[in-house]
Amino acid sequence: MLSAHACPEWPYENTRVVVLSQGEVTLPPKLRGNVDVLAGDPVLIVAQLAPQGLKHLYIDGGQTIQSFLAAGLINEITVTRIPVLLGQGIPLFSQLGEERNLCLIDSSACDNGFVQSRYQVLA
Predict the structure, then answer these.
(1) Is residue 95 predicted with pLDDT exceeding 70?
(2) CA-based, 20 to 30 A from 26: which of 19, 91, 103, 105?
């Protein structure tokens, strides 16, 4: 059993964290200075982050992933399948507008039943 002291207070201590949101975001006081909040067009967001040396971005969230894919800004996708059937939710790839071809890079299964596959997004 892990004690409450075994986990760091902020697990992303050496990682730049940017929250993308179209709505108002109020950060808890302990996260201010550790998290930036941006909104807008994915192309403009990438253009804003690139001069800061950010070249490899981790994009998460169904609608955010869809907007970055539509803008042609994602070159690799990692899909993790968890052995639970959800009764409802937002489909991850429901609004792409066009078919996207992928090439499998790697796939692996974990003891807990998770299956993770990495794909290259083809032009």
Answers:
(1) no
(2) 91
Is the pTM value of this prediction over 0.90?
Answer: no
Task: Indicate the SS3 state at residue 94.
Answer: coil
DSSP 3-state assignment of 24?
coil
CA distances from 5 to 2, 11, 12, 14 (A): 8, 13, 16, 19
Q: Residue 64: is it exposed, middle or buried by C-beta count within 10 angstroms (0-12/13-18/19+)? A: middle
Report pLDDT digits (tens) over 108-119.
Answer: 999 999 999 999
Q: Give residue 102's identity as a one-letter amino acid code.
A: L
In angstroms, rounded to a whole number, what is the distance separating the alpha carbons of residues 39 and 46? 11
Sequence spans of domains, the chain: 16-57, 74-123
Helix, strand or coil, per DSSP, at residue 65: helix
